Structures are given as structure tokens and as C-alpha cells.
Amino acid sequence: MNKFFGVILFISALIFPAVNAKELDYNYQSTYSVPIKLSITEDFSTKEPPNEGEKLQFKVVENVFVNNTKILEKDTIINAKIETIITSGMNGFPDEIILNNFEIPGIKNSQIRNEYIKTGQNRAFWVYPLKWALTPIPFVGSLTNLIKGGHAQIKTDDIITIYYYPEWK
Amino acid sequence: MRAVLILLVFIAINLPTFAAEEVTLANENTIQTRIDTIGTNILNKNKIDKRIIFTYNKRTKKKALSLDKTITNRQVIIYDGLYQSVQTDDELAAMLSREISTVIKSYSGTWGGIIDSAQVTLGSKKFEIVADKRAVDYMVNSEYNPLALIIFINKTCPQKRFDRFSRHNLTSKRLARIYEYITFKYPQYLENNELIDNPYYQNFLLSSIDNRKKLEEKIQTKSTKEIDYE
User: Which residue ranges make up each domain of chain A?
Assistant: First the structure.
């Protein structure tokens, strides 16, 4: 009887690690990263927002090296996708733009930590205290609803840094 | 002999209770494992480097003014009532992605995300749409069908009469915005629609004819203006 359970245990030990060891298509063990500095090719503002999913153009600000090997030339043009646009709202809520999927030649998207978020001027910091200060006067506090937050802007001299992890899958 | 009989009767009475409890625990463990697996998959595939945990809760959600734990504790709580509406992994991924996108917002901005969390709460109508859109992105990145989000919301969120004075959007507006987002960003899911024979998806198509006509007009005129959905 003990032999029987022993055999079962042995077979389980052979099978279960194989089941659990399903290889993942990512491995974040490595912490080695290379910064890639980018700047937008034309000034961008959410004042007249494009559709989500459209692409913005960036260029590489300086050469990028991995282990002394140049992997990216300065001025290389790179596209990034507009992931989401959050439009500004009442009481000073700002516009926000989220960029992702930077298409870098020779580098897999899975090897880049690349989400970039740009927010407009957040006026809620002073709009809410003003609203509360004006609330005792009937209806006046509600006027702050008309104050909207700032547009999100990316200027050509803004430097955006994304990180390339060469050892990631 | 008498003591043995009493013991046997005691065991006979309590055995089904123990067995039932064990079955319940085993079921809850299965559900929690399923939630953890899909939730962690979404976090990893989207390279979300913020800590978020998932907890299955058998109780129903409190409607009273209680603090939302997704924002305060960065904890996604899956209530039993909602979980009952989940049929496929895609739908569970939709539910979790939606919550993850809310939690992520609580990590960004100044003062440890306090300001951004307050804005999510105060401007909930706007961020409701944003969270829906981000959920679509998370689902696509983790290889789930984003149309399942439409199915999940269509099954679980009731349709109110008006939303002008409400803190939430009409469900039909949310669904239309999600559909528009998928149309522009991930048209491949509509071109090769795996859910076309899903009765819940067909129900959405049926109940969104007017809104989808508006979207078709927007596409034809190449407009970038926001559509006023019903």
C-alpha cells in the first residue's frame, strides 16, 4: 500500500512542476534599463484634440547605447499612440493626455516602460477653496463651475524619457 | 456504549455541516484564484508597476456613503452580486480592468494621489468614461476581447431616465463611448467579431442603433467633435 502511494507521489512530483512551470511571455527580473530621450516634432495641445488612437511624432534627442553599441541614432523619428485624452472639466479639472506604444525601430514594445502622461494646469487647488469661501453667498459659489482646467501641452523643447529594458522578453 | 451512540449521533448531525462548509470554502477559493489569476495577468501584461490586490467578497456592495476601497486601499473588491453576472474570462477581465483603471488614478499626481483621487470622486462622470476607455486598453494589452466590456456593462448596469443632475452617465452613453473607442482604436475586434453570435452583444447592438448611427455619421464626415449620445 505504501509503495502504491509512493508511486503516486513520484508521478505527481514529475507532472505538477511541468504544469506549473508554464512559461510566461514576460520576465521582469532585470532592472537594467537604458533611458531614451525624446522630443515632439511639433508643438501639441489638447485645445483641439485629435481622435484617440491617432499618432504623434517624436524624434530621438541623443544617441542611445547599450553596452557601448549604438542602438538608436539621434533624430530618428518615432511614433507614439494617443491612448486616452481626458478633457478639462468644471472647477479647474485639467486636460490630460496619455501616450503609449512608442514604436522604436528594433525594440519590442514589451521591452519598454513607455506610458507618458501630460496634464494641463490644475486649477482645482485654488478653485475649490474659492468655491467654499463663496458658498455662504447664495448661488455665487456655483460660479466656480465655469472655471475649467488648463489644456495639456507638449512643446518641442519638452524632453520625454522612456526606458528600454534590453533583458526583458 | 451510550457515550459511543451519542458521539455517533453528534457526528451524523454535524458531518453534513462540515462538508457543506468545506464545499463553500473550496468554491470561494476557486473564485478567488480565478480572480487573482486574471487580475495579475492584466497587471503584468500592462506593465502596471503599482501594487493592487483583488479580494472576493460574498457580501453585497453597500450603497451608503462609504469610502471606496479601490481609491483608499488600492484594493479591488469583487462583490458576489456582480460576480454572478460574469460568465467568461473576458467578462471577468472587463470587470477587473475597469476597477484597475480607477485604482491607477489614485496613484498619480501630488500628495500621494490624494488630489487625483478627490478629482475622480468629484468629477466621477468624466472619470467614469476615462476608466471605461482605459479598461479597453488594458484588456487589449492582456489579450482579452474588449467587446466583453460592452457585454458586461450591458448586463449589469441599469439604465436611468436622466443623467444631467447625476454623478453617473447614462449606461447607454457609456456603452456608446466604449464602442466608439474600440471602433477608432481597435477596429480589428469589430472586423473579426468573435462575439457576433453572443445574444448579450446582439442585445447591445439592438439597443444602440440610434447611437451607432451617430457614430457612422461622425466617421463619414471625419469629424473630431464629441458626439452627444443618448
Answer: 30-164
